[in-house]
Amino acid sequence: MRSAIAGDEAAYAEFLRDAARLVRALARRKLGSGSGIDPEDVVQEALLAIHLKRHTWRSDEPILPWLAAIARYKVVDGFRRRGRRMEVDIEDYAEFLEAPAADMLGERDIGRAIAALAPGQHKVVASVAVDGRSIRETAAAFGMTENAVRVAWHRGLAAIAAKFGRTGK
Amino acid sequence: MKTDDLIRSLAADTPPRAASPDRLFQVALAAAVLVAAALFFATLGPRTDIGQAAQSVRFLFKFAVTGALAAAAFHLVRRQARPGAGTGGAARMLGLVPVLLAAGVALELAAVPPGDWAARLVGTNAAVCLTFIPLIGAAPLALFLLALRAGAPTRPAAAGAVAGLVAGGIAAAFYAAHCTDDSPLFVATWYGLAIMGLTVAGALGGRLFARW
Fold it and tell me: Could you identify which of A57, A93, B95, B202 might form a hypothetical disulfide with B160, taking C-beta atoms 3.0 to 4.6 angstroms apart as the criterion?
């Protein structure tokens, strides 16, 4: 994580993979089999949270309690949101219909959230997250500057996270 | 979407790291005090005999207890914004504030004959107190909720409530400079009620705005 903060992408990806393993173990244990919640959805939401809230970790403190606290929060959050989602199912479905690209994004919750982004963010996020293009390739493909792609990508991630944080209307 | 794809793409997102929550809370605190001061001096202002009042233990006690509340709650809410940061010690410190207040009440009960207790408790400014503490504390509460939102409170409602206590402590400290009811009986009752209002508002605000 320390080298990741210094801008080492490879080290950061390695750290996120470790974090994913840790969250997956915790999510499987807490969710059990009868909850109807896919642990992998929780893993992805926790990874997104770890990424967007990484400034809340202090580099002079051990990282495990921080990771574990986020993982626990996201497991609880998973129960809370899915408990509530029963009431807003139709609305979710409506968003789904408005975004025909949803099919190719896969059935994960994050995939669905990407599909619901504003068009400008959607094409960038889908290009990087789903088609697996790099920032540079995405910039070339859409005729944007790399910086603009980075900004759209970052805002898209924040928008997805905000969607998960919402309490449901 | 596969988790591996997500990891790879998150790693590609490398904007400068956001400011640390501690820093944000310092900024929020400074802004909260400024806003509260501005509103206080624009509306109520300090009482006219403040020089004389400053000689009285009862008057000074109001600042001790509201100041202790604001400081202890601020220390706690800052930790609540960081996942995994222990809050036990800070929570115990906050727990000492009611003890301090209770000690003040006990001394007052010992010093004043029982016949005067009711008059001291009711005072003359209860309605002003219940109006202005929440009014002065509203903007500070909003600032602390914003700071919480930028952080990552794993218990948003509890953190919001503590943010309400910080705002209440700050607002009450300003209000105390205006109010002529100095008895700890008055402070415990009416300040307590007004601050509780901000605490409930903070808990609701935390639930609604500080989730992530």
Answer: B202
The DSSP code sequence of chain A is -HHHHTT-HHHHHHHHHHHHHHHHHHHHHHHTTTT---HHHHHHHHHHHHHHTGGGS-TTS-SHHHHHHHHHHHHHHHHHHHHHHHHHHHHHHHHHHH-TTHHHH-SSHHHHHHHTS-HHHHHHHIIIIIS---HHHHHHHHT--HHHHHHHHHHHHHHHHHHHH----
Question: What are the tens digits of pLDDT across the range B104-162?
Answer: 999 999 999 999 999 999 998 899 999 999 999 999 999 999 999 999 999 999 999 99
Contacts of B151 in chain A (CB under 8 A): 53, 56
* Interchain pair A153, B12: CB under 8 A: yes
Dihedral Cα A68, B156, B9, A60, nearest 10 deg: -50
The model carries a pTM of 0.81
Closest-CA residue of B relative to A12 is: B11
User: How far, in Å, CA of A9 to CA of B66, rounded?
Assistant: 48
Single-letter amino acid, residue A87: E
Mutation target vs B (from A1, A47, A55; most B CBs, 10 A cutoff): A55
Would you say the ipTM is above 0.85?
Answer: no
